[in-house]
Here is the input.
Amino acid sequence: MPAKDSHISVQLDELLRRIAREDETAFTQLYLHFGKKLMQFAVSLVRSKEIAEELVEDVFVKLWANRLQSERIGNITVYLYVAVKNRSLNALSQKAHELVAAPFDYLDTTIDQFASDPYDLMITAEMMARMREAIESLPPRCKMIFKLIREDGLKYKEVSEILNISVNTIDAQMAIAVKKICYSLEIEKPGKPFPANLLQASRKISKKS
Amino acid sequence: MTTSERIWHLMAKALNCEASSFEQEELSVLLSENESLHQQYELLTRIWNEKDGYVQDEENARLTIMKIINKASEEDVAVFHTNLRRRRRRQLFIAATIVLVLIAGGWFIKLGGSSSAPVQNERQEALVAKKGSRSRSLLPDGTTVWLNAGSKLSYENDFTGSTREVRLEGEAFFDVAKQINRPFIVHTSGIEIKVLGTAFNVKSYPEDKTVETTLYRGSVKVFRQEESEKNAIDLRPNQKLILSKQAAIDSEKLSEEVKPTNKELPTLFTIAPIDSTKKESERFETAWLYSRLEFRGDSFEELARKLERWYNVEIAFSDEKVKQLNFNGSFEKETVEQAFVALHAALPLFTYNISNHEISVGSSK
Here is the structure.
C-alpha cells in the first residue's frame, strides 16, 4: 500500500521553499490545495460562511506577510489547520468556545460525497446512499475526524496535533466509522446476503487483482 | 479488544495508509477468514480514495490570492514604518551630511574600484515585480527592497564583495542595512546612487525622461557613471532629486520646473524638498508602498504610462491634444474601469474604450 501522501508532503515542502523565495505561484497553489478544506473546517467550527472566509484569508495573509520565514514551518498542514482552529475558537463567544473546544460535539461538518459513478464500481446507487447516510449520522466528533482523514487526506498524527487528541482516540473513532459504513452496506450482518449479482462481479474482480 | 473489533481498526488504518506492514499482514489473515468482509473491504478500497477532484474555482482563487498578497504588503509597510519611527526616536541626530550636488553637463567618474563593465558572468539574481503588482524582498545583506509594478532589480548572488551593488530598472524603495565600509550602490539609467545605511526611493523607469531619488533617512550620494564621485550630489533627508536622463548625453536644459541654483551651468537636475509633515503613509513619493497610485499635474500621456504599469494594461491614444490634458489625483482600491470613470468625471474632454486589457483614448469632439 503506498505510503499516504508522502508524495504530497514532498510537494508541500517544495511549495514552502518557493514561498520563502516569494514565489506567488507557489503560494497560489498552496491556497488551491487547502483553501476549500480549511473553509469547511472553519465553517464547522464557527458556523458562518462569512466569518470562515475572512478567517482563512487572514491565515494566508499572515503566511504571506511572513513568507521569508516560511521554511521554519515544519508541517504546513498542521500549521494551517491549527491557525484556522485557533482563530475560529477566538471568533466564537466565550460560551460557544466552551461548547466547541472541549468535546467538539456541537459541530456541523460537511461531507463531500463519494464521487465515483456507482456503476463503475459495481456499487448500486442505493448502497452509495446508505453509505452517505451512515457517514452523515456519525457522532459529530467522529464525523469531523473522518472528514479530516478521509477527505482532507490528513494523517492520524496530524489530526491528533490539530484537535489535541490522542492518536488512539482517532484510531478508535475511525474504526467506529468504518464499522458503521460496512454495516450500512448490510453485508456484515449475518443472514442478509450480499446482492447476488454484485457478489459475482466483485469476485471476478478480486480474482483479477 | 476482541478479534471482531480489531478488524475495524485494521481496516480503517489500512484504508488510510496508516497500517504498518505487520498490521497489513494481520488484516490479510483476518480477511481471508471472512469472505463477506473481504468483499466489503475490496469495495471500500476502491471507493475510498476517489475524491471529488474538485478544482477550487481557479479564477476566484486567483482574485483572493491577489487580495491576500496586497493585504500582506500593507502589513509589511506598516511594520517598516513603525520600526523607522522607533529608530528615529532612538537617534538624536541624523547623520544628514548629504547635500544634493547638481551634476551638470556630465563629468562623472565612475566610483573607483568597481568596474564599469557589467558583471554578467557572475551568478546573477533578479527580483521582478510584474505590471499590476508590487513586491518586497530581502537581499543577502539584510537590506529590504520594495519593487513597484513593472520593475526589475538584479544583483550578484552572494553579495560578498567590498561593495554591495544592484541594478535597477523601474521603481524601488530601499531600506539599506547599515554596513560601514561596504557601500551599497544602485546602478540605474547611467547613474549611481551610493549609500551606507539609509532609506530612499528610486524611480527610474526606462521609458521615463527623468530619474527621481527621494531620501528619507541617512545619506545618499548620486553621480553619473562616467563622473567622479567628488562631484556627486549629496541628498539630505526629505529631499528629492530629479535628474534628467538626457542631460548626460546632450546638454539640453530641463523644460520642467527649474529651481534657482548657485551654479551658472544649465540645470540638468532639480532638488526639491518633500512634504515631511505628512504621515508616512500619506506621502506622495512612497504612496505606492501603500498600494496607492498618486499623480500631480501629470499629463494624460505621463499618467497613462503609470496606469499601464499599475494595472497591467495597454493604453493607446488616437488624439495628440488629449495627451496634454492634466490630472491630479490618487487611486487606491479602484479598478482600472473605475479609475477611468473618475478621470472622465474630472475632465470629460476625452473618450475612452476599455476592452480586456487594452484601452483606447480619443478626443470627445
About this structure: Chain A touches chain B through 53 residues (CB under 8 Å).
